[in-house]
Structures are given as C-alpha cells and as structure tokens.
Design goal:
single chain; alpha/beta; Rossmann fold; Glutamyl-tRNA Synthetase, domain 3; 3-stranded antiparallel β-sheet; 12 strands; binds glutamic acid; Glu/Gln-tRNA-synth; metal-binding; ATP-binding
Amino acid sequence: MIRGRLAPSPTGAQHLGNARTHLAAYWAARSVGGELALRIDDLDSPRVKSWAADQAIDDLRWLGIEWDTPIARQTEHVEHYRRAIETLHRHDLIYPCYCSRKDIEEAISAPHESRFRGESAPYPGTCSGYQYGDRIEDREHCFRFRAIDKALRFDDRSMGTLRCNPAKELGDFPVVTRSGHASYQLAVLIDDRLQGVNQVVRGNDLVASTFRQIDLAERLEIEAPEYAHLPLVRGSDGRRLAKRHGDTRLSFYRDQGVRPERIVGWAAASLGLIDRIEDCEAGELIECFDWEKLPTEDLLLGPETKRFAE
Ligand code: GLU
C-alpha cells in the first residue's frame, strides 16, 4: 500500500509551484489506491509565519486534495529526532562544528560547480577531527553528520536511476542546527517514517538532499521511502518563482474568485496528464496520472496564469 505525503512549510504562502507538486503527490498515491498523509514542516522556527500553516491547509482543501491522516506537525516529533541524534552519536557519526558560513567560504579555495541544483561546495572538513563531546569554550556549534564515502543510488520514479557519493560530492552536513534543533535532513526522514510514508514526490531541487537522507536512513537502519523528483515551476525569465513574476499565491487566486478547477487543470496540463488546459476537479484526474507522462524540463510560467481570473 502506497502512502504519499503533503509537507508544506509554513514559512510563506503556497504558490502555483507548490500546488503542482501537492497535486502530483496526491494523484501519484491515489492512482494506485494509496493513501496520503499531511504534515506541516514547522521546524524552521525563525522563518515560520503564524498564519501560514492554516492557510496551506485551506489551500489544499480548496484545491480538492484530501488526506487520510490527522494533521501532523514536526514540532510534535522533537523527542523522536532526539533519539535519532543519540543513535548517530553512539555510532560516532556526528561531531560539533564551529565554522561560520564565512569560515567555510574561506576554507574552500577553488570555485565549485555542483551537478546538483543550488548546492555549494562540500564542507571542507575543518572540524571533522572533533568527537561528539569535544567543546571549544562556549562557542556556538552545529553537529555535522559524517557523510558516507561510498556511491549511493536510488531509482527515482520520474528521473530514473541516480547515483552520488555523499562524502565526495556533498560533504558532511548538519543534523543539529546551531540553535539546537534537528535539521531539515534528519527531521523529514524521521517524520516520514513516523507517518508510514513510503512515497515522496517533491521538487528536483531536493535531489542532493535525498542522497543525504538515504545516507542517514542507512546509518539509522530506517527504510527510506521511494522518491520522485519533479521539475520546478519557474518564472518566465527562468529564475526561481518570486514576487517579481506576479502574484502566484494560491490565496491570492482564491481572493480573486479564481475557481480551483482552473489551477488543477493548469497543473494537470503542465504535468502532461491532460492534453490542454481545461477546468477539472482534482479527484477527476486521479486516473490520468502516469509517471511516463511527467515532464523532464522545468516549466517557465507563461501568460496563461495571468488569465486564471478571467
Ligand atoms: N516542507 C518542504 C517544502 O515545502 C518539503 C520537504 C520535503 O519534501 O522533504 O519544500
């Protein structure tokens, strides 16, 4: 039984790109009679907005996406993260790192071009000689995970087989942040396991993160879910979707009186599931879902989205 998930981050409004990914996750799970879990990724406390979780839930309902679980929140999982961190510590897989961003930039001399989107150069290992209990006075630190020096692979439902050596290409990464919270990489792995999620559909900007999460999963002896990474929706200039591309927040369309079927039809057409943009309800398209039809290239937003309100 497939169980997919929706995992909005309440750090801002959900926009068209989020809608497309949420719908894809919903169709992927439902098309094989699977279930869907909803989780609010509210761990990133300084960036979390008080209104954004409720708004994301309203957006999902408005789109016609239904889920099968009580709504979970990362902030409810803190004890589970703590236990996982304990396990990593017992296996000598984490160490305190005192480097600031600037320290890291200075330690990396050569310019780095990653084949993964948005990835900077691997951590240069400055603090990797420390053990878990080592402390330099009272200086602020995160805890880094010792990435494995071995080729990992996974079969992406959309992109095919992907490979990466985490130690060489990605470097050691934080599992506990400077403010003492579990990092995104650790949290989502534990969240998905707690929620029984075995299928993750998300944007292809997270492929490098997936290798980190698989690395963690192996060391924690957790079975990682299957993954599907989808191309992103970008602005007409190819840049990350932002305000300058116009307002693409779902709440904005809602306020304008745009019918959700418009957005759903646009998303389905842009995913190659229907031939042209036409108004559809989310539930009507479950049978149209087909991994083979999904696009491989990013979508640059065209003028069609300006006409949603017409
Ligand atoms: N909450 C994340 C986001 O909205 C998704 C995390 C994930 O897919 O692992 O981008």
